[in-house]
């Protein structure tokens, strides 16, 4: 067992004198802070529109973890003259691994029974979760926090990976710091603050504002490693380096603010002052919970990555100072029984709520309704309480052996049989899930597969227009898409008129029927192509991406009888963009515009603008948002956006009627 010994400059008497001020008693206010943080996260995960900055509850957890772990390490060293690293890591394992193992077993069994097509993708998530590298795994495979379309029951494990990596590394760093004696803690704290600020500066420099789409569409939002696109947003949000500022500030605060020591100094009478500081900190946190988006109307959250995380950590420390001061009322308020119940079970609530959400909504990205959220909270509370009482607490306290010894007594034969049957059932379900997952093929989700099948029926007009000087108009299918519809949004900017290069090629004939859209239209491309419609539809497409191509088509007199437009699913369509797009179609005899259907906060505004286009004499409206509800049969995939076969036929039928073909 590795330990940190007493430095040469300290005596055993000095260690004895510090025992009282180094004691770390139970701080109920910190559990109250955990409760508020986990509730904020659960609300955000249910529906980001309800609490846009609720994800910042994770940063609150990071700060508390940095503070408590460092405080405990300092306390142990000053009480005993050493830090038993082996015991520290064992305590962490007993605290974290049992519930994690139970959750993973449940997820594997559920997925094998009800979401078997997702088992292949789940395999990597389980391995990453067990080894606590989920954050780096998600960065590498491009399935970060904001990705949608997959059944992703383990995506929330990224934050636990960040914390566990801290638990592994930080005690070793503290060995070096504590070896120089407690008198150097203030200087060490100052350096930690400098490092935390430096991390923030790195994030500011690395952050790229603007909308985020596929790598080919917005390459400035990605780094290239070989032939792999690595999302800047995912890296800044998920990586252990860029998320270390909260942990480091919490650790620095522990070196300066030890609750027992504070009560021996002049700050012991400043309870009211600390309450005021705590109120300011709590108010700031709630304001950030309400206003700081991870992905907003202008793309990635500029406020978040340009100092927002650091500000959240500082506000958390303000509340921490108040709840750890024994004369302040803040700790007593946040230490009330309700928040204590939630806070002491915050780990289990965080572990289990996300998989339950996913079981309800089937794919990541779908917001829950209020009724679904209430049901999910009840299920999460029940499972968390069972886990806390039956799995976590007995293992953490080391009482499993004594409990089993009592159970083996003859008088407890019936309860023993129930326990053995329950354990056998759990083992069988775990084995079923694990074996099924190990043998499952790695496949795309069903939405991506359907779009790949449909991709052969579309053309890339942008690519074709670049080639027209060398040959006639030909069908050139786009490459198969690799992901489903993105959940990013756009930045509206001025779109310049595209100047068509002069060419000596012969004029190309008009396109009689042209359809331009995103992946909703892409799903129905084969049906539209059978009707004689040329389809240019792409995954993650936004209207502003198509304006230059439409201008080139207009200038080359390529529009024929009719143009169908179905855009607006993937981001806000500003008035300027819509005007520029529609101006290219002024001379087209018939323009069919379709409203969009998705549970995204920009959809109502987009549809309002699209419906207003009926003021133009050549525009026909197909109100897809309304008419989609009348589709009979199994029309949509679980995301409620993309089309199953019944939906594709219905979609094509509506357009056939609108076009009169």
Features:
661 residues, alpha/beta, Rossmann fold, 2 domains, 5-stranded parallel β-sheet, two-stranded antiparallel ribbon, 9 strands, 6% strand, disordered N terminus
Description:
- The chain is an alpha/beta fold and 661 residues long.
- The protein folds into two domains: 21-83 and 121-407, no CATH class; 447-659, Rossmann fold.
- Helices cover 58% and strands 6% of the residues.
- The protein is built from 28 helices and nine strands.
- A five-stranded parallel sheet has the order 6-5-7-8-9, sandwiched between helices. It has a two-stranded antiparallel sheet with strand order 1-2. Strands 3-4 form a two-stranded antiparallel ribbon.
- Strand 1 and strand 2 form a beta hairpin.
- The longest helix has 30 residues, at 85-114.
Quick structural overview:
With 661 residues, the protein is α/β, with parallel strands linked by helices. The protein has helices at residues 12-22, 28-46, 57-80, 85-114, 119-130, 134-141, 158-178, 185-206, 232-238, 244-256, 259-262, 271-291, 302-323, 330-334, 337-344, 346-361, 370-397, 400-407, 413-439, 446-454, 461-467, 519-523, 525-530, 543-555, 575-583, 603-611, 624-627, 645-659, and strands at residues 222-225, 228-231, 295-296, 299-300, 511-517, 534-537, 559-566, 590-594, 619-622.
């Amino acid at each position: 067992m590795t330990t940190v010994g007493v430095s040469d400059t300290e005596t055993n008497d000095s260690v004895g004198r510090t025992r009282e001020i180094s004691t770390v008693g139970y701080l109920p206010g910190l559990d109250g802070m955990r409760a508020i943080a986990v509730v904020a996260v659960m609300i955000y995960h249910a529906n980001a529109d309800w609490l846009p900055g609720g994800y910042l509850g994770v940063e609150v957890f990071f700060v508390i973890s940095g503070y408590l772990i460092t405080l405990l390490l300092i306390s142990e060293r000053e009480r005993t003259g050493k830090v038993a690293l082996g015991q520290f890591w064992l305590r962490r394992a007993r605290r974290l691994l049992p519930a994690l193992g139970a959750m993973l077993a449940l997820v594997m069994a559920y997925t094998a029974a009800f979401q078997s097509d997702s088992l292949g993708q789940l395999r990597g998530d389980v391995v990453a979760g067990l080894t606590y590298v989920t954050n780096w795994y998600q960065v590498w495979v491009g399935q970060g926090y904001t990705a949608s379309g997959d059944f992703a029951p383990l995506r929330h494990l990224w934050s636990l990976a960040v914390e566990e990596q801290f638990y592994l590394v930080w005690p070793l760093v503290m060995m070096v710091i504590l070896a120089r004696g407690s008198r150097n803690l203030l200087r060490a704290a100052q350096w930690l603050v400098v490092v935390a600020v430096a991390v923030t500066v790195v994030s500011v420099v690395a952050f790229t504002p603007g909308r985020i789409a596929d790598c080919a569409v917005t390459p400035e939002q990605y780094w290239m490693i070989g032939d792999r696109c690595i999302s800047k947003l995912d890296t800044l949000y998920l990586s252990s380096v860029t998320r270390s500022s909260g942990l480091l500030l919490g650790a620095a605060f522990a070196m300066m603010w030890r609750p027992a020591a504070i009560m021996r100094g002049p700050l012991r009478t400043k309870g009211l002052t600390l309450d005021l500081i705590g109120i300011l900190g709590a108010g700031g946190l709630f304001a950030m919970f309400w206003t700081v988006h991870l992905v907003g109307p202008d793309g990635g959250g500029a406020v978040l990555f340009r100092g927002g995380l650091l500000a959240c950590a500082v506000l958390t420390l303000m509340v921490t100072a108040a709840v750890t001061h024994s004369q302040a009322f803040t700790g007593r308020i946040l230490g009330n029984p309700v928040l204590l119940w939630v806070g002491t079970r915050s780990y289990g609530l965080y572990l289990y709520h996300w998989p339950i959400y996913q079981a309800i909504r089937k794919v990541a990205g779908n917001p829950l309704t209020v009724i679904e959220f209430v049901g999910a909270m009840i299920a999460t509370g029940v499972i968390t309480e069972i886990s806390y009482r039956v799995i976590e607490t007995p293992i953490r306290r080391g009482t499993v052996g004594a409990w089993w010894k009592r159970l083996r007594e003859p008088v407890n034969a019936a309860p023993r049989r129930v326990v053995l049957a329950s354990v056998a059932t759990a083992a069988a379900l775990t084995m079923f899930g694990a074996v099924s997952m190990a043998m499952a093929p790695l496949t795309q989700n069903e939405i991506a597969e359907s779009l790949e099948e449909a991709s052969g029926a579309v053309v890339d007009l942008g690519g074709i227009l670049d080639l027209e000087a060398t040959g006639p108009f030909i069908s050139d299918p786009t490459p198969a898409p690799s992901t489903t519809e993105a959940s990013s949004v756009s930045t509206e900017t001025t779109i310049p008129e595209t100047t068509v290069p002069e060419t000596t090629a012969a004029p190309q004939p008009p396109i009689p029927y042209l359809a331009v859209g995103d992946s909703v239209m892409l799903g129905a491309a084969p049906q539209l192509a059978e009707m004689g419609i040329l389809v240019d539809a792409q995954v993650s497409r936004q209207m502003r991406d198509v304006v230059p191509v439409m201008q080139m088509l207009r200038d080359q007199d390529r529009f024929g009888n009719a143009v169908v437009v179905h855009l607006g699913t993937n981001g806000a369509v500003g008035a300027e963009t819509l005007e520029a797009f529609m101006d290219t179609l002024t001379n087209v005899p018939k323009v069919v515009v379709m409203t969009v259907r998705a549970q995204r906060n920009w959809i109502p505004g987009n549809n309002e603008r699209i419906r207003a286009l009926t003021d133009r004499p050549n525009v026909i409206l197909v109100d897809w948002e309304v008419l989609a509800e009348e589709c009979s049969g199994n029309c949509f995939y679980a995301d409620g956006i993309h089309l199953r076969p019944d939906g594709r036929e219905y979609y094509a039928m509506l357009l056939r009627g609108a076009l009169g073909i």
